[in-house]
Every structure is written in C-alpha cells, then in structure tokens.
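In response to reviewer comment 3 from the previous cycle, which asked for concrete evidence that the modeling workflow produces usable outputs, we include below a single protein chain processed end to end. The sequence was submitted unchanged, and the resulting structure tokens are shown without manual editing.
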Amino acid sequence: MSAGDFQNLLAFRTSLRRFLHWSQTQARAVGLTPAQHQLLVAIKGHSGSQDPTISELAEYLLLRHHSVVELVDRAATAGVVARSRDAEDGRLTRVTLTPDGEARLSQLGPAHLDELRNLAPVLDHLVTDWVAHTGQRAAPGPANRRTGVPRGA
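The workflow returned the following structure tokens.
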C-alpha cells in the first residue's frame, strides 16, 4: 500500500470518528446515551413484520446477547423502550419504542440524515481517488449480509 492509500484510510476513519463524535453529542443533548441512541435506531430500522428480538438487536449492534439485555434494561428504566414476550414463542423477548423513545429519535433523525449527506461526498471522493490510484473497481467490503454492517467496523 502506498502513502496515499494510508492517507485515504486516515481521512475515511477520521470522517467516521467525527460523525460518531457528533452523533454521540447529539444523543446526549436529548438525554440518551450513545448506546441507547444506537438501540433506538436498531429498533426503528428493523425491517421485520414484528418488533425485533434481543438476538436481532445484538446482531445489529454487534454486541453479545447479555450486553443487549443490560442495554434494554437501562433503556426501559429511562422510559424509551418497552419489552414484551413473543406471542408465539414465550422464550423470545421483543423490544419496541415507547412514545418518548419515538419522540427523542425523531428529534435526532433529520440532523443525522443531513450529516450523512455532508459525509457522502467525502466518502465518494476517497473511493474515486482509490479507484483512480489502483486502477481497480471498488468491490463491496465484507459486509454482514443481513444488516449491511461491515464486520469489524
């Protein structure tokens, strides 16, 4: 890898870290921890016909099952999520947003989309530079097929 490749990697990682820092600050401003904000996004973004299970949330958040149980416990205490037993399989716990969780998430959503729109040109430029430099087509990374989240990110 060339020095330019490492400069692009640094620019990419710096952009991601800036976005995450900004996002964490925004979450705290509405009374959520960054982890709670991620939990709310995972619940709201779940595409299933039912509310997500603890296991599904663990997969989205790249956390262990017991860590998500603790996160859901704290979020339920804060009043932003509620849990219920699955109607067909009582062993499963499903998690939903409360009206307060919905309200806080709706406060954060538009600004996050705007910030992602600002980040997109930076990422496009980095990929374009990489493709031009290497002469290769950009290949998809090792993403999790179900969530689209890069592994190890």
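Helices lie at 3-29, 34-45, 54-61, 65-77, 99-134. We consider this sufficient to address the reviewer's concern, and the full set will be provided in the supplementary archive.
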